[in-house]
Amino acid sequence: EVEDLYDLLLKVKEQIEIEAVAVGAVLSDYQRLRVENVCTRLRLVPLAYLWRRDQAELLQEMIDSQIDAIVIKVAALGLDPAKHLGLRISEIQPHLISMNEKYGLNICGEGGEYETFTLDCPLFCKSLVIDDYETVIHSNDAIAPVGYLNFTKLRLVDKEVRSEY
Where does the record place the Diphthamide synthase domain (predicted)? Predict the structure, then answer.
């Protein structure tokens, strides 16, 4: 995994001039250190703007910033593939906060509790639409079942042009 990231960033660096890499890690030393290692080897600056941010505040900022992300994998006590897969982060947010209070779940999924996929955000020129998918149950554990969405058909859609005035 680290060497794959190294190879990818090396190819990018050979094609365009980059000086830094933004890291999305919030709490995971494992993730942050792996990216920092690759950046050091490639003489790139690792930028970890989200590092150690309050997770409840960060998730709220994502929602307020109109990031349209859905849950595509669950793997934790309190998360159920049948109930939570496909929900938008704005829809699952109250449940994540409740599970944090009850079980200590990482609200932003930093412990691998869940994964998301971004369909749209203000930075995207087009939005993604999922036309077809299948739900895969990896482990039907009674306490913490693991399931994910496998997209079988996606498409890009032009966004409406919005006037700033």
Answer: 3-141
